[in-house]
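Annotators were shown the component list below and the corresponding predicted structure, then asked to write short factual statements about the assembly.
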Amino acid sequence: MKQMPRILALLLTAVLILPLSGCGSSDGKTHLTFQIWDVAQRDGMQAMCDAYTANVNPDVVIEVQVTSWSEYWTKLEAAAESNTLPDLFWMHTDQILYYSEFGMLADVTDLFPYEEHYGEISISNAQGSDGRMYGVPKDKDNIILVYNREMFDAAGVAYPDETWTWDDLEAASQAIYDATGNYGYMAYNDEQLGYHNFVYQNGGCILTEDKTQGGFDQEATREAVEYYVNLQNNDWCPNQAYFAETSPGTAFFSGKGAMFLEGSWNLLAEMNNYPDMVGKWDIAVLPAAPDPVSGDGRATISNGLTYATGAHGKNLDITLDILTYFAGEEAQRIQGESGAAIPAYEGLEDSWISAFSGFDYQLNLDAIMTQFDYCVQYVNNSARPKWKSGVVDIMTSIYNGSVDIDTGLDNIQNLINTETSKKLADS
Amino acid sequence: MKKTTMKLSAAARREENWGYFMIAPTIIGLVVLNLWPFIQTIYTSFCEHLGFGNYKFIGIGNYVEMFQNPEVWRATWNTILFCILTVPVGLFLSLLVAMMLNAKIRGKGLFRTIFFLPMVCAPAAVTMVWRWIFNSDYGILNQIFGTNINWITDSKYVMIACAIVAIWSNIGYDAVLLLAGLQNISKSYYEAAEIDGTSKINQFLQITLPMVSPTLFVVMIMRLMSSIKVYDLIYMMVEDTNPALTSVQSLMYLFYRETFVAGSRGSGAAIVVWTVLLIGIITVIQFIGQKKWVNYDV
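Structure shown to annotators:
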């Protein structure tokens, strides 16, 4: 370590210097970077960018770069601080309010007549606290129930359908566990892919309608969280210690469990990555709350990403033009057909479904489309970055029993309210 | 006291300037990359981070909050426990390995390479492999011993699991350093001891240990400091939804989660300053303690 060989040092220097030389465009074209976090969508994004070069502006070449989700935000924030944001990048609902509040994102409200082609949830996911749009809607998703058909057959249980409630979920899990010894529904400690769905199905909420307060003091919310947490006490459900070593997806696709909640954005990758499993599993709408405090018991969390560009970018004219293109039908269709994600552009859902046509077995993708009728917008307010990780910590301590559930939920409520009111007072 | 003023000749002064010139790259690097960030960190610890590098000075608020936070005390204890578990055992094993590698055995070069290998591997990769070894359902460790221990999710075992990985990955490096120390010991001492009929154990206690103690001391300081700063290993082993997280979370891991996950850089900086203080205290104790056992007269 102390005496690093000279060759290694030289190599390192070369590696460090190399990207610098890339800045000078030798071919007279403008080279832009487009930062994303999902490697499964790289090809789809690149196809869109290439279409822009081919059809709109041949002098612009866009390169898609992928950084893993966990590093993405650390990197992007550092880049924003030093005014070196990538020319184009994905924005997530968790962060858009924070970035727009500090004026990091270019206002894209007037680029496109969004109301005509985008749904309400897609548009609100792209808005800052001031109601302006700071991102171009990219896609929309929701959460569905993934189940193993073979295990249902083995247990002689009917496949999940729209008549299912939480009770059916439990009964089927028990039957599958008894018949096959495998886990039933795997209730994993997660928000978007876990208890948030149950809370809204039960008529509760994580944040109140005006987003100024938490909903953890409401009976419907508490009941649903408690129900969800207690699922792990059943024999047919692994506990959180299990999930710390094996994610529900890994367990499912290695045939250890019969059901889990999955985001629509992962389905294509899972079809590709587990060819042996194709035909052995399918998806269904989420089971409804059997006895909701209010509402009809149906809900699923729907989120959508956006495309954004920095407010002070060097190539702002060009990047805004690209974003206009990304908002249009052609780019959204390319995204859908590549299977990257369901286009946010209304009426192009089928383009995404067509990406699955190459497989021998057709998943019940209509379930996802049906769910858009009653989906709930992804939970967010401007203080979320301040309370998100705190809530995760409290949920973990509820799960491992170091805090009893009532105290834990009170703590969550306090945390959300304190951080939110502090944020509102600041701004 | 007599004060002597030295008058330098022009040539000597030139030479002195050259000296400064020669060390400039290192010194500038140190100031820019270490000293200045250190000062900034101290300043940040008195601020609240509003976002994107905007700070608001809030005095000692972060420190008050930090010392009221049971998680910080828990992490401090975890860090100390990690040191207690890894340093003495690690040093003992490294010394043992070093002595075996110093002995006349066949394939010495091969063994040296094997023991040094973990050092060449990326810590992240090493930890990923160990995670599979520890996996409660499919891991080889539970298979061999026929046990059913949740090594990395049970709060009773997770610290031991991390300590095992830490010791395993560091033995080779420490052993190589100690080996160098051992090889500096002149053979004549042992020959003399043989003639006097000293037992092997006494040879070790009376000759080897005192003679290698300066190296041992250096290795110990290095190992202690890096154990206090342990982060990557625990980060790779234990994800933040792991129910056993609080039983193994070190100060640096807590710092990471405060700063980069929760985004409160102020309280993160306060944790770092607290850790630096801790390292300082321990190092001072060691330097006082070394007078008792480290032998510099060779």
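Statements collected:
1. Residues 405-426 of chain A form the longest helix (22 residues).
2. Chain A has a mean pLDDT of 91.
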